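Entry 14. Structure prediction run on the chain below.
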Amino acid sequence: MAFRITDDCLACGACADECPVGAIKEGEIYTIDPDECTECGACKDACPVEAIVEE
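Output returned:
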């Protein structure tokens, strides 16, 4: 998996709204399903607090 959501996540939903394949799951801190992620980077670009990092 190329991307990971850190503990800085605010669970605002911006990343999930931008994910073209629905790989981001809601929760107290959102998570990225590595089996669904296409590593496009849209989530990283959409995160307002830069909580998504490349692995």
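The helical segments are 14-18, 42-46.
Filed with the rest of this week's runs.
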